[in-house]
Design brief:
By secondary structure, the chain is an alpha/beta fold. It is built from ten helices and 16 strands. The strands form three sheets. Strands 1-16-15-14-2-3-4 form a seven-stranded mixed β-sheet. Helix 9 links the parallel strand 9 and strand 10. Helix 1 packs antiparallel against helix 3. The longest helix is centred in the middle third of the chain and has 21 residues. The two termini are 13 Å apart. The N terminus is likely disordered.
Length: 411
């Protein structure tokens, strides 16, 4: 299909990035929904751009084999201690900095978390230092240090809560036993460590000479029957004609559910204000990417074997996706440690970029994966003066080869 010609600032943004990170000659998958009849090269400028990715936390008990030191067979001391996929994530940060986007939306699981961030009853030094509370704060601190340079160089970091931030993996279950359930103390720890970013209007002003409009970071729990404070967990704002909504997909009492009623109200209000583009960011995908399902070698063995996201409750997922489709929004997510871009039911896209460094879903020995299923990947979005939107996915393989353009779509 015909591809749009590069245009002005877009040419500079992607051109500089491509030359800097040494993009190789992997064919670009281009997809254009519509195009103008005349050449837009000289006038259709980029008015706003952002990057998005998620899932950079490390897993010391199940690391990706390609991240282990070939001499020791272990994670680096740094990754084992701070539980961050430092090599992959720092390389992405460098590339995103070169692209000079206004925002980086990080779609959750920036920490290993999964504990109970409540204050321990025993306040002895050893108990406090080794508590889940301190582990949460140390991991948040390391991640915040990694992205601090982006903030100082012009890219505002917008955090999205993930299940590793909100859930306790050993929470008591009503029927007995333990499992993963969101905790109010973990939501509080999120606000304590990310709240200054949600939203710092003074920093917006310093970076861009303007502030976001109609930002809503308040407690919207009642709209969806939630019982804990959702302020700074689900929130939204307008900027340069586009609307951005962040959702908590694992609130207390409603794990793996989107706040559908709040989102529908929020997008309707944004549309009434004249916003032209709608971008939604959450951690868990609406549609699980079964990355082995379409491979001839294993037509009857889809991987993973069960829903990974909001599709654990299909009616609730469908209600969420109907809202996304109604506003022709684009939904960016993570959770699955893999890259995939799809149009599940119609016009709207799900862009899965849970590929920020966490152990890949697909193992190196899987014969059923596509060429990019083991790529560390992020997406960069450009919004043009004409109203066009271009999404370009960049990535590098599990051996840290050259960065490639994995897919590019224009609509």
């Amino acid at each position: 299909m015909k591809q749009f010609p590069p245009t002005h600032k877009s040419t500079m943004l992607l051109g500089v990035a491509l030359s800097t990170v040494l993009v190789s000659s992997l064919p670009v998958h281009a997809d254009n929904d519509r195009h103008d009849e005349h050449d837009q090269r000289n006038w259709d400028h980029v008015v706003l751009s952002f990057s998005t990715v998620g899932d950079s936390r490390q897993d010391p008990s199940n690391p990706d084999p390609t991240q282990l030191d070939p001499n020791t067979g272990a994670l680096s001391g740094q990754d084992a201690s701070w539980l961050q996929s430092t090599k992959a994530w720092s390389r992405m940060i460098d590339a995103i900095n070169v692209q000079k986007c206004q925002f980086l939306f990080f779609n959750g699981d920036m920490i290993m978390g999964y504990g109970n961030a409540g204050a321990p009853s025993d306040n002895s030094v050893d108990t406090v230092v080794n508590s889940d509370l301190m582990k949460f704060y140390r991991q948040y601190g390391f991640w915040r240090g990694m992205v601090a340079g982006l903030m100082e160089k012009g890219t505002y970091v917008v955090p999205v809560p993930g299940n590793h931030e909100t859930q306790w993996k050993k929470a008591p279950l009503p029927g007995g036993g333990t499992g993963k359930r969101a905790q109010a103390v973990n939501e509080n720890a999120w606000r304590a460590n990310m709240g200054d970013l949600i939203l710092d209007t003074a920093r917006f002003q310093n970076l861009f000479g303007e502030t976001p409009a109609n930002f809503d970071t308040g407690n919207n729990a009642a709209l969806d029957g939630l019982t804990t404070d959702q302020s700074q967990l689900s929130y939204s704002f307008d900027f340069r004609g586009s609307h951005f909504a962040v959702i908590n997909t694992d609130p207390v009492g409603h794990d793996a559910h989107a706040p559908v009623h709040w989102l529908a109200t929020d997008l309707a209000a944004a549309q009434s204000r004249g916003m032209k583009h709608f971008f939604v960011f959450g951690h868990k995908p609406a549609f699980t990417y079964y990355f082995g399902a379409d491979i001839p070698a294993a037509p009857d063995l889809p991987l993973p074997g069960s829903p990974a996201g909001l599709d654990n409750d299909v009616p609730a997922r469908d209600a969420f996706w109907n809202v996304i489709e109604q506003y022709r929004a684009t939904y960016f997510c993570g959770h699955e440690h893999i890259f995939n871009m799809s149009q599940p039911t119609g016009n709207s896209r799900q862009v899965l970029v849970g590929s920020g460094g966490s152990p890949f879903e697909a193992a190196p020995t899987d014969a059923t994966i596509s060429p990019t299923d083991r790529y560390y990947a992020w997406a960069t979005v450009e919004i043009f003066e004409s109203g066009r939107v271009r999404i370009t996915a960049f990535g590098f393989d599990d051996h840290f080869g050259r960065t490639r353009v994995l897919k590019s779509v224009v609509f």
